[in-house]
Amino acid sequence: MTEIPLNIQLSALPTGPGVYQFYDSNESILYVGKAKNLKKRVSSYFNKNHEYGKTRVLVKKIRSIKHIVVPTESDALLLENNLIKELRPRYNVLLKDDKSYPWLCLKNERFPRFFPTRRVIKDGSEYFGPYTSMKTVRVLLDLIKSVYPLRTCNYDLSAEKINAGKYKVCLEYHLGNCKGPCEGFQSLTEYDRQIDDIRQIVKGNFKSSITYFKGQMKALADEMRFEEAQKIKDKIDVLENYQVKTTIVNPKISNVDVFSIISDNAFAYVNFLQLAHGSIIRSHTMEIKKKLEEQDEDLLELAIVEIRERFKSDSKELYVPFNIAVSPGIKVTIPKLGDKKRILDLSERNAKFFRQERFNQIKIIDPDRHTNRIMAQMKKDIRLSAEPKHIECFDNSNIQGSNPVAACVVFKDGKPSKKEYRHYNIKTVTGPDDFASMEEVVYRRYKRLQEEMQPLPQLIVIDGGKGQLSSALKSLDLLGLRGKIAIIGIAKRLEEIYFPEDPIPLYLDKKSESLKIIQYLRNEAHRFGITFHRNKRSKGAINSELEGIDGVGEKTAQQLLKKFKSVKRIKEASVDSLSQEVGASKAKKIYDSFRKE
């Protein structure tokens, strides 16, 4: 693969949060970093003189840049930590430590304890997090314990030992921080109910706790204990502003591979995310050049085998967007909602960003490739014999037959060519007849192009359904152009595409680039036509006001407007000023007419 210059890689980076990775000429990892704005942060390495020699050496060695987009800056922080531990880049010396982010553990035991930890042990316990700050964990833990007294001792509180009186309550019981389950003062049923409430708090459901605190705060305030009430209010503020989900995915999701695919007519992009203990430890996007019209299912199956072999993955579960064939012993999950669906959406988002990045690079290196791809897709979607590099679209505008006009807009290579736009005053039609108007304007347009030996379009788009399309076809028949130019109609209601002599319309995918270009043409023709119609109607209203005066015709009205610029100024003008333009007799009539009003 040809090496892409760094300036092009930089220009194609997204502006959202994420993690970036620098690689040298041997594709060895150099550095992993996080950013709130990927494009701004990565560009800063190349746009200034660095004080430290290590950074200058790093920048000189960078040959390629990869990135992973994530929803928030907090997710970027966690992902950066995971990738550094997994990849151990040469220049991440300061981050090569054993630091890990804290979790809240609900111990798998009778009368479970709830405590912070930096180690996730697979013993059946529940883990919530990870959190980006131990301070946040402690605030949340203190908050929970102030509402629900929990034990802190590590005794084995089996029913046999409690009934045998093996334990005695400690100071925590006398301070009111524990209800004494060790001596049977609190039942297991009541304790488990508290644990269920705590699970809701940690998952983000603070309603019951906030109601409890507000009642407690009001009671303290009524007793004039304002300092204690303020402390309770601080905890309410923490609850209301706290964001419990600081992890990228649910911590219960572990040892899972996630795959998604985005494709067009020439390429497919497969994104791979590897998850361990609820966090992403690896991301990779593969670009596949299509040889034939392969289906996404076939391409994804091939890519999964290749990627899992390359990264030595032994995960026993896959999250994928649709059902695929895999090796025996591997579970395939197609998420529909919840945390699993969110991580699949994140994978798809990374594939889309990679695809867009490639497009942006191609636009800089080879501007025609993007256009050629769209033209080829339109030829396929609309069943054309040639790529529609020159398209023209027609639209009529009138209000109950008044001031009928038409517009023709021209697109070259999928983009507007505004210098070739044309307006038409309808000359042969009286009354509101869209069909006859369409027939007239199409005939006039292509009669002139034929006479002037101008190139004809490959595609004509008519704004309307079968009726307007049939009218346009009559004109093409008269000019001998039927079959030489492709022509379609687009109806607004359901965006149906109509073809000549085909009663069944074509419905393109709403996300189709071909449909978007046709809609763009239709909307541009409507905008261009309605603007002309409004201007003409406005001008007509002004002229009629002047031409209603005895002795004032169209030429006189235009002469006055050219001099005075508006009807208002004509009304305010003196007889002498008017006389200089139209003579004393007409000036007196105009002056008297406006004074009578």
UniProtKB/TrEMBL annotation:
GO biological process: nucleotide-excision repair; SOS response
Residues covered by the UVR domain: 207-242
TM segment ranges: none
Coiled coil feature spans: none
All residue ranges annotated as the GIY-YIG domain in the record: 15-93
Molecular function GO labels: DNA binding; excinuclease ABC activity
Entry superkingdom: Bacteria
Segment forming the signal sequence: none
Metal-binding found in the keyword field: no
Domain UvrC family homology region profile, chain residue ranges per copy: 262-476
GO CC terms, sorted: cytoplasm; excinuclease repair complex
Cell compartment(s), UniProt: Cytoplasm
InterPro entries referenced in this protein's UniProt entry, alphabetically: GIY-YIG_endonuc, GIY-YIG_endonuc_sf, GIY-YIG_UvrC_Cho, RuvA_2-like, UVR_dom, UVR_dom_sf, UvrABC_protein_C, UvrC
Primary localization class, coarse: cytoplasm
Key words, A-Z: Cytoplasm, DNA damage, DNA excision, DNA repair, Excision nuclease, SOS response
SUPFAM superfamilies linked to this entry: C-terminal UvrC-binding domain of UvrB, GIY-YIG endonuclease, RuvA domain 2-like
Purpose: The UvrABC repair system catalyzes the recognition and processing of DNA lesions. UvrC both incises the 5' and 3' sides of the lesion. The N-terminal half is responsible for the 3' incision and the C-terminal half is responsible for the 5' incision.
Subunit (UniProt): Interacts with UvrB in an incision complex.
Family listed: Belongs to the UvrC family.
Stated name of the protein: UvrABC system protein C
